Amino acid sequence: MSESMENDFLILNPKEAEEILDKLPPEEEMQDLADFFKVFGDPTRLKIMLALQSREMCVYDISTLLGMSQSAISHQLRILKQMALVRNRRDGKTIFYAPADDHIVSILSQGLDHIEE
């Protein structure tokens, strides 16, 4: 910790400041976390994720349900898949999508709970 930091806090003492900084994840993990939350910054991706909580669906069903083009839905699903937020399974020529795991469902649920308070 720099010497100037010792005098820069109103309430925290330098030891407390150092303990807090030690608990923060490394910079790379902070960037990954920021990128993770950025994905939820798009209303279309949120609609897709919330729709998939009800049941797994193919691109055609999602596009029909949300009134959007299959191309737009496929583009958003690609982003969601790259961020490991959705999983897919193939059944013949059709690919079905679902939330990747219960953590994703929980994050969305907690976010909705928070804004509805």
Walk me through what this model shows:
The protein has 117 residues and is mainly alpha-helical. It has a single domain, classed as Arc Repressor Mutant, subunit A (Orthogonal Bundle). It is 59% helix and 12% strand. The protein has helices at 14-23, 27-39, 43-52, 59-66, 70-82, 102-116; strands at residues 57-58, 86-91, 94-99. It has a three-stranded antiparallel β-sheet with strand order 1-3-2. Helix 4 packs across helix 5 (70-82). The longest helix has 15 residues, at 102-116. The radius of gyration is 20 Å and the shape is elongated.
Blueprint (SSEs and pairs):
Elements: H1 14-23, H2 27-39, H3 43-52, E1 57-58, H4 59-66, H5 70-82, E2 86-91, E3 94-99, H6 102-116
Antiparallel strand pairs: 1-3, 2-3
Helix pairs in contact: 4-5
What labels would you give this structure?
117 residues; mainly alpha; Arc Repressor Mutant, subunit A; three-stranded antiparallel β-sheet
Percent in strands: 5-15%
Radius of gyration, in angstroms, nearest whole number: 20 Å
Structural class designation: mainly alpha
Query: What profile does the largest beta sheet have?
Result: 3 strands, antiparallel
At the fourth CATH level, what is the homologous superfamily?
Winged helix-like DNA-binding domain superfamily/Winged helix DNA-binding domain
Provide the spatial order of strands within the biggest beta sheet.
1-3-2
Query: For the residues shown, what is the average pLDDT?
Result: 92
CATH class: Mainly Alpha
Any idea of the CATH topology?
Arc Repressor Mutant, subunit A
Count of all domains: 1
Kindly, what is the distance between the CA atoms of the first and last residues, rounded to a whole number of angstroms?
A: 40 Å
Helix content: 55-70%
Proper CATH architecture: Orthogonal Bundle
Low-confidence stretches: none
Shape, please? elongated
